[in-house]
Specification:
single chain; 469 residues; mainly alpha; disordered N terminus; disordered C terminus
Length: 469
């Protein structure tokens, strides 16, 4: 029977039993629509018209295309949850092996904590814009407290909060659009011409940014779909619900950001939006700050599951239940809070830049995961092997996957465009980052070829790792 939302979630990284499977695709829509309606998404959308210098028409088209492309990859991961019933990074053992999945999972945890710290800072800025007398520490503490309860209580509270956000933040976003469009007329004729004045560079940069926004959810999207009843229908609706919820929520918030970006002049986007909203600023910014708190709780919750995945690798005989998840959740909350409050502002800026670079390690992982799941295994895995001390059918590590993963990182280097590093090809393209696209195109065929060669040539007598390829 489904546990009540007043108690801690009982399940952690282990398969969800069939009798505890529940929920509908509507729950997945709201869990990806609501939390995307936050200030961070608005600020991201504003980059299209500020940093990348696009007209509003160009910005909206680029943002839409990027979200659609990235959303496909994100939602393909979501469909894995109902089939396997385990968190996403546990399932990665099926591609990389028991120990082979550890470095990637550890990097994902690092990314979660970094995103959580950045979200705390941005959410606090929103509160300070509404209440100028509020100190930075106090503002961060408020966002942290709002983040803590859903992260601690788990799956059901997160879904309940997401349903609330879908209504509140959805209304707030429409208020923003209506207020700005009616009162400030942000689209002069000079901005209505698509691709005028050599906008292609900014267009491609915006498209890549939006695509990466969606792909960033890939390592934990299955964490929210693993409770759905097993079966092809659940898998199909998980894909559709996550895709439509995440893309529509992101586009609504990014559209607000693109419009505000045209009017921000020298102001920060948060301050600009506050000024443009006038009397509606306080309730709208407060609701969007609530949105960032819930999104933050998802980062911490999924970070805890990934941390337990790493721990279970080295202690396979120990069962990690709700108490272990609670402890890890508290540790991650403290780490994120400490980074947001104790470190210097410049450190936080540098760490945010490091997170951009860290995104490049996710792209080959998603390429290998999706290729292995949909093309090589057709979704058929021995879930029990994920938890065996020797890796079961998948062994300690999978050489083709690890080699292709490293290759997928290396081929991105010339195409990377981040604050910390810009490759030669990216510089020649005017700062356009196409590294993610290059890796997604090159890695799958090489991985398929290497898997078939390796299993035929290196494992001729069988070691329990073969499948029908």
């Amino acid at each position: 029977m489904m546990e009540t939302i007043s108690t801690l979630e009982a399940e952690t990284i282990y398969p969800i039993p069939s009798e505890r499977r529940h929920g509908t695709a509507r729950d997945l829509f709201t869990v990806w629509f609501g939390p995307n309606l936050m200030m961070l998404t608005v600020v991201t959308g504003a980059l299209a018209t500020t940093v990348f210098g696009l007209s509003l028409t160009s910005a909206l088209i680029a943002l839409l295309l990027g979200n659609l492309v990235g959303g496909i990859f994100m939602a393909l991961h979501a469909a894995q949850g109902p089939r396997l019933g385990v968190p996403q990074m546990i399932q990665s053992r099926g591609q990389f092996g028991l120990f082979g999945a550890v470095p990637i999972t550890a990097l994902i945890v690092l990314m979660y904590v970094g995103f959580a710290a950045s979200n705390l800072v941005l959410g606090a800025e929103g509160l300070q814009a509404c209440f100028p007398g509020l100190g930075r520490f106090e503002a961060i503490l408020v966002i942290q407290l709002l983040s803590a309860a859903p992260a601690i209580l788990g799956y059901h509270i997160i879904h309940t909060a997401a349903r609330l956000l879908t209504v509140l933040c959805g209304l707030a976003m429409f208020v923003c659009l209506g207020q700005v469009m009616m009162l400030h007329a942000p689209v002069p004729a000079a901005h209505a011409i698509l691709m005028a004045g050599g906008e292609w560079t900014g267009f491609l940069r915006t498209l890549s940014l939006a695509a990466l926004w969606q792909i960033a959810y890939a390592p934990y999207v299955s964490d929210s779909s693993r409770y759905l009843p097993a079966g092809p229908e659940s898998e199909k609706y998980a894909f559709l619900a996550c895709f439509s919820g995440s893309v529509s929520g992101s586009m609504l918030a990014m559209s607000v950001g693109a419009v505000v970006g045209l009017l921000a002049t020298e102001q920060h986007v948060v301050q600009a939006l506050t000024s443009l909203l006038g009397g509606a600023a306080v309730p709208v910014i407060l609701v969007l700050s609530l949105g960032i708190a819930v999104a933050n709780s998802m980062n911490v919750y999924c970070g805890a599951l990934s941390s337990l995945t790493v721990a279970q690798t080295f202690t396979p005989d120990r069962h990690y239940g709700r108490s272990a998840r609670l402890f890890i959740t508290l540790v991650l909350l403290v780490l994120a809070f400490g980074m947001a409050t104790l470190m210097a502002d410049r450190f936080m800026a540098t760490y945010s830049e490091f997170l951009e670079l860290l995104m490049s390690v996710m792209i080959p992982w998603t390429a290998i995961n999706l290729t292995d799941y949909y093309i090589l295994h057709h979704g058929e895995y021995d879930v029990a092997s994920f938890f065996k001390r020797d890796g079961g059918l998948y062994g300690y590590y999978n050489v083709p996957a690890l080699l292709c993963y490293l290759l997928g990182i290396v081929v991105q280097i010339p195409f990377l465009s981040t604050a910390l590093y810009t490759g030669g090809v990216a510089r020649a393209l005017g700062g356009v980052d196409l590294s993610w696209l290059v890796s997604l195109i090159l890695v799958p065929p090489i991985y398929i070829a290497m898997e078939r060669y390796f299993r035929v040539r290196v494992l001729p007598k069988g070691n329990g790792h073969e499948t029908s390829l």
